[in-house]
Amino acid sequence: MDPVSHALVGAAVGSLAPGPAAFWAAVAGSVVPDADIVVRWVAGEAAYLDHHRGATHSPLGAAVLGSAVAAAAQALWPGSGFGRVLFWAVLGFYSHVLLDLTNAYGTQALWPWSRRRYAWDWTSVIDGPVLALGALHLAMRTVAPARGALWGGLTLAALAVYLGLRAAAHGKAVAAVRRHAPAARRVSVVPAFLRLDRWRYVAEDDRGYLTGWVLGPGRKVGEPQVLVRREDAVVGASLAAPAVQVLRRFSRHPHAEWRRDGDGYLVRWWDVRWGAGPIPPFAAEVVLDPALKLVDDRLIAGPGRLRDGVRFVYEEWGRPV
């Protein structure tokens, strides 16, 4: 989830803590798991996609990063007690991990024992109600700071109710898709970026993927687009590209399409969870020569052109089911 949401929820956790050291330890603990952003700066987008929400979101990360936060808090507030601030730093840390688990990106919460990306698919990476609840808590804490623990507790309770409602809505959407596509061996349903009443579904069968929308309280399942799995020599040659290997490790439903590009081939891979075409947030692009040898590859993060961004918003918000 976005860093602002993490910090706001961390502040709600910290409002239950005694004293400023524990409060700020919880806030810092709630944002420090995303310290792995340095991987993007040092090693590039592909390495970041491969390692984000890995070690820094694991129990090992909780121990190392929580201890660092606690040490910093103890230095700023001498006598605050290392064990006490460590406790609140770790609570903030796990508020971050919990929020990340609720969306579709995937979190390696059991690293290094498992590289599996756990994702519950309930919320968006930027989720309006989570932001609103966190902002409301901050406003109430500012107006009546003496009741900070009350506001923090109410905010966390409201957040738990909201996440429970999203979990229930997700379960109903999954059930609707399974009724609509009974032959599917695997189904994913992820929330639209901008709408609470809209879910994108992917139903995977032996031929490829069916993808479309589930809309409204009635869980209306729209007619799908069909993506036929391609397993030809061009797609096979692209599998050697490092960017494709990273994307496939990240993806739940990887899919490839290709076209002729001069004398060679241009292959694009993406995760069908994000749409029927290689639009945000990630795609891998591979250039092959006429002999199917790798010429170039790259990972594309976000819309490369304005029209891609406009298309993404249209897909998420306005496209009829």
UniProtKB/TrEMBL annotation:
Name of the protein in question: Membrane protein
Residues spanning the membrane: 85-106, 150-169
One family name in Pfam for this protein: YdjM
Assigned keywords, A-Z: Membrane, Transmembrane, Transmembrane helix
Highest taxon listed in the record's lineage: Bacteria
InterPro entries: Transcription_regulator, YdjM-like
Organism: Caldinitratiruptor microaerophilus
